[in-house]
Input
Amino acid sequence: MFTKDIGIDLGTSAVKLLLMDETGRIDNIVSREYGIAFPHPGWSEQEPADWWDAVCDGIPALLQGFDASLVRGIGAGGQMHGLVVLDKADKVIRPCILWNDGRTQKQVDYLNNEIGKDKLSRYTANIAFAGFTAPKLLWLRDNEPENFARIEKIMLPKDYINYKLTGVHCTDYSDASGMLLLDVQHKCWSKEMLDICGVSEAKMPKLFESWEPVGTLTAEAAAKLGLPEGVKVCAGAGDNAAAAVGCGAVGNGKCNISLGTSGTVFITSSTFGVDKQNALHSFDHADGGYHLMGCILSAASCNKWWMEDILNTQDFGKEQEPITAEKLGANDVYYLPYLMGERSPHNDPAARGSFIGLRMDSTRADMTQAVLEGVAFAIKDCVEIARAQGVEIASSTLCGGGAKSPLWREIMANILGIPLALPQTEQGPGYGGAMLAAVACGEYATVQECADKLIKIKSVTEPDPALVKKYAARYELWHKLYPTLKPLYAEMEALQ
Output
């Protein structure tokens, strides 16, 4: 009988759980949804208890029909940047402020302009973005001082799950990189940033490599989940790093693009480096190395919004049927995907989504196509910045819900001008989490060895040189739209 590992993908809308055997085969997948609260425009919060309830409900269902005694390890990939704060009794003080929350512009401006981008980059290898954790801490100090004073432990979303599993306050380097509190190059908490935010190192979780075990299941957690107490829990990783592992983007010079709720470009490196403009994030990777990452806040969520909220349909495939081959590279409708503001490369929470180029003969299909192309153009923005730094991106793997669309894969390959490989297993962060757990349990010596043995490619979408040329011309026009509209976004904010 093969040993098994559980992968947890703690996403924004649901937790996805998978059971993987030591050969990499997925035996079962279970998903449990939970809600998001939007208390004010631009705010985004969740209750950590809802995540834990979903895990506790999902894992017994995941194990149904399987021998739970064969489970050796658990690894989680989780939504990044969210601020979870606990009091002296390890109780959650307030709802988690999520990665896509835009309330911290005042704090971001303070960090970038008064502390200074040069200092931030020196302390952490990054500058401040609205989604990062440090600005959220400053917001809490400024706006909820009574809650700030109660803080005894600060952690990230998947770390809260690991705490509930093991009783250990921990995080990993990849996820911690997105807090703006970690010295990414030297893999330790930045004393300067902790001082700026008014928190001591004692309030921070212990740091681990992603594949390192942080503990085993507590008796309470084991009983609740129907698992043995000896099951190891590894530190896990931020969802993008976990997805990269789950797609085989480990080692040096690999790229993975994720089309999930948000969209990311993830470029691996064995050596530390910083984008000179700090438009891309410089983070630690779950394989022990480093990576550059660009993140757009709305990717597959743009398509979901357009389909479900505007067109009132869930038949995504049917809506894409009229978008035939001759229409690719020939659409005169353009879309800016900034429904939640934007992170990479603009760092502008005030940015708004837009359709531009509509005429009387514009069709529903033209607008659907524009949404798919607009997200791909935004991904290209990040790729081009990496290329400008001398990074060669000859190909990439692709994961996330949006990767399931053959049309979107074709559009993306031609806009980027590179082949896109679809892994056999399309479970990104959850699969990566299970792989990290397998390494933690000694089933593989390294993350690289695990990826080499388990990751298989299902298909490759090749770019068409003629289409690449057509899309290059349209990208040049699309690329001018944001700077043209940017002055108006601030005016819109002022009228809100």
The longest strand covers residues 14-21. The chain has a mean pLDDT of 95.
